[in-house]
Amino acid sequence: MPLKSSQILALLKEKRADFERFDHTAQQAFQKYRVALAKASHMSEDAILKDLSDCAPSDRGAEPLESLVNDGNWVKSSGLVWQSREDSHAWVRDRLTDISTFAVDGSQIYPGKDISLPIALIQIGWFENFHSANKHYDKDIAVDVMTPADLKASSSGDPVDRRVNMRRFEMEVERLIQYMEDRAGDRACLAFFDGSLVVTFAEAFDQTTRDFYVKCVVRLLQASEHYQVPVVGYIDTSYARDLTVMLQRLFNLPDAPSIHDAPLLGTFMQWGDRTPLFSCRRSGVLHDYPVAIADQISFTYLKAHDGLPVRLELPQWIYDCGRLEQILDWVRCEVIIGGGYPYVIETADQTAVLKAEDRQLFFRLLQDWAESEELTLRLSRKMVSKARRR
Q1: For 147-167, how does the pLDDT look when each residue is reduced to its tens digit (9 = 90+)?
Q2: Cβ atoms < 10 Å from Cβ of 224
Q3: Which domains does the chain have, with CATH numbers?
Q4: Are strands 137-146 and 189-193 parallel, antiparallel or unpaired?
Q5: pLDDT tens, residue by residue, 310-369
Q6: Is the entire prediction scored with pTM above 0.85?
C-alpha cells in the first residue's frame, strides 16, 4: 500500500518540538564555529601550527599544508566566470585536450536465500577519456564469481555481503593500480577514486576487515607516488569534520558532532573556489596506516555545483612537485563536462551497474550451467515468479 501522508504529517507535527530543539542547538554551535573560522582565516599557517602544538598530531583534525593566504573564511577564489557555456567549454578544451582521465566503479549481485548455492557476482567497469581527436575513449568491464569457498559460507543464508563488498573494493583498487602501471611517468593523466582515501567507514568493522581496506588504499597511494600518476579521491557529499576539529582545538570550542566542514565553508564559496590545502590529521583509522602514508594525505574543498562544496583528497606528492593547481583545474574541467559531477566517474558508474536484465541473465546462466554439470541448484518459487512477471 502507498504511504499515508496524513499519518506522517500528524507524526511530524506531534514531534515538531524535537526537531526544533535540535535545530536551535545546532545553529547556536554553528555560529560559534563560523566566528572561529573568520578568526582562523586571518592567522598564518605558522601561528596555527604553534597553537596546535599542545595537541597530539593525530588529534588535531587537520594542519595547514599550503599557504593560508585567502579571500576570507579560507576561500581561495578561482576567478572563473564565463559569459556562456560555450566559453566554459573553450576553457576546458584549453586545459584538458590530450589529457587522459580515468575512473572505475563496481556493482554486485549478493548471495541470497532465493538460490540454494552460495554464489555472488561482481562487476567492475572503467572509463578512460583521452580528450583527444584521435582517441575518444576506452570503456570495458571485468567480472568475478565468488564461490562458497570465497564467501566462506556453508549455506546461501549466511551473512556474507561484507566479503562481497571487500572483493569489489579490491577489484576497483587493483584496476586503478593497473592504470597507473600502464601510465607510469605520464604527466598527462589523472585517476579518480570514487570515495575517501581515509577509510573511516572501516572503523565499524572488525580489525581484520579494517586492515583489509587500509591495505588496499595504502597500495593505491604507494602506486600513485611510485608511478607518478596523480589520483584524486572525490567525495561529493562529505561529512568529514577535520577542519571543524581543528577549529575546536584552536579556540577551545564545545564539541559539535552535527557540524561538518562542508556546510561551514560553503556559504562563502562561488563556483570553482576552493580552500587552501590541508594535511589530514584525523584520529581513528589513520593510526592503522603506515606513518609515511598517513602523513601524506591532503585535502581541499572545492565548489563544484550549486550544493555544498565537494571534498577532494590527494597524496601530498602532487603538491610537493608543484602540480596542485594543474590537477585541480583538470578536476574542474571534468565537473564542467559532467554538468556538476565528474563525467569520467559518472560514466564508469553507468558502465559498471548491473541492471535487472543482467541479474536475470546471470541466474539463467547459473541454472543452465548447474544442470549441465549435474549440480543441485534450487531457485525459490518467489524468484521463479519474479522472472515470469518480468
Answers
A1: 888 988 665 555 689 999 999
A2: 23
A3: 55-354 (3.30.2170), 357-389 (no CATH)
A4: unpaired
A5: 999 999 999 999 999 999 999 999 999 999 999 999 999 999 999 988 888 888 887 777
A6: yes
